Amino acid sequence: MNIMGIEGTAHTASVGIVSEQCDILANVSDTISPESEGIHPRIAANHHAEKFPELIENAIKNSSLKLSDIDLIAFSMGPGLGPCLRTTATAARTIAIFRDKPIVGVNHCVAHLEIGRKVCKVDDPILLYVSGGNTQLITYSENRYRILGETLDIGIGNFLDKLGRLLNLKFPAGPKIEKLAAKGKNLLDAPYTVKGMDVAFSGLLTYLQHELNNGASIHDVCYTAQEISFSMLTEITERALTFTKKKDLLIGGGVARNKRIINMLEKMVNIHDGRLYVPPDELCSDNGAMIAWTGYLVYSSSGPDDVNNITVDQKYRTDMVNVTWRNSITDH
Ligand code: AMP
Ligand code: MG
């Protein structure tokens, strides 16, 4: 069976093709990169509408398959930006209807988790999901992914991108901040906001903006942004590991590409004789292959969705998904 996954929840339009063994046959993406502002949902949706036809064509070409060899269409049905989700669903439904293929809608956050479990060969980890719009600490129990902790305001990537805009850095600012932070020397006396198992970043952002206006060094501001926000996440992750007694930690989402957060988490899990699993960069960012793989898991355990009734859900939370593919006969 070959599965095509179509991703388009926010800034990235992507099409991936995987086999039912999760061989990644194609994974092509195009990300919108606004000059100075944030991501405008309608502009991003137009970007996706324009790019999907050539991405689908390129994915097919790279996989050396024909469109008729695709057996299932999967797409990201949420969470995400409304116009982007509707455009993505339209692309997926169009192929499914015209080619008479089954279709499944997939939760984007769960897809990050499932591709990580599969490629890192880790069965039951805690997942720290750190992306642009989402920041969640997730564990599995009784057919649900449970959220142990999350951001109370903005996602960690969003925090870095907002800071980037103050520094005139183009989206995505995370990698540029990582480079600038490497030259920082002084940790500023910034607010550290952990509330129980949850975190918040907007106070830290306001503080850093204030320091920049008062002439603080850009390097120290980036260094402080990373040290404080990543420490907050490391603290709640450590608590989750000790509370659940799980040893394995999986990281996912675009911010998982950052070497400093990896380094901090690695040190922490080592203290607990645990292990950190980091998927390859292209699978940490939003991508179609993770949607295709998760689509296969959903389809093989609970069948297709109804192409005429499947809708999108901007607020489709990780813990709303009925996880039918784990702890069943075919536990992947
Ligand atoms: P996602 O939403 O999962 O595709 O991830 C995109 C987010 O990851 C954006 O907010 C980026 O700024 C962020 N990002 C990508 N690479 C890095 C990095 N090396 N360090 C920090 N953040 C990053
Ligand atoms: Mg994502």
Q: Which key phrases capture this entry?
A:
about 325 residues, alpha/beta, Nucleotidyltransferase, domain 5, 2 domains, 10 helices, 12 strands, disordered C terminus, binds adenosine monophosphate, binds magnesium ion
How would you portray this structure in words?
- The protein is 43% helix and 20% strand.
- With 332 residues, it is of the alpha/beta class.
- It has two domains: 149 residues, ATPase, nucleotide binding domain (Nucleotidyltransferase, domain 5), CATH 3.30.420.40; 157 residues, ATPase, nucleotide binding domain (Nucleotidyltransferase, domain 5, 2-Layer Sandwich), CATH 3.30.420.
- Helix 3 crosses helix 10 and helix 4 packs parallel to helix 6.
- It has ten helices and twelve strands.
- The strands form three sheets. The protein has a five-stranded mixed beta sheet with strand order 3-2-1-4-5, with helices on both faces.
- It is globular.
- A hairpin with a 4-residue loop joins strand 6 and strand 7.
- The site of magnesium ion has 5 residues, from helix 3.
Short description:
It contains 10 helices and 12 strands. It has helices at residues 41-63, 82-99, 108-120, 156-166, 174-181, 202-213, 218-244, 259-271, 281-284, 288-302; strands spanning 2-7, 12-19, 24-31, 72-78, 103-107, 126-130, 135-141, 144-150, 194-195, 198-199, 248-252, 275-277. The strands form 3 sheets. It has a 5-stranded mixed beta sheet with strand order 3-2-1-4-5, with helices on both faces. The protein has a 5-stranded mixed beta sheet with strand order 8-7-6-11-12, sandwiched between helices.
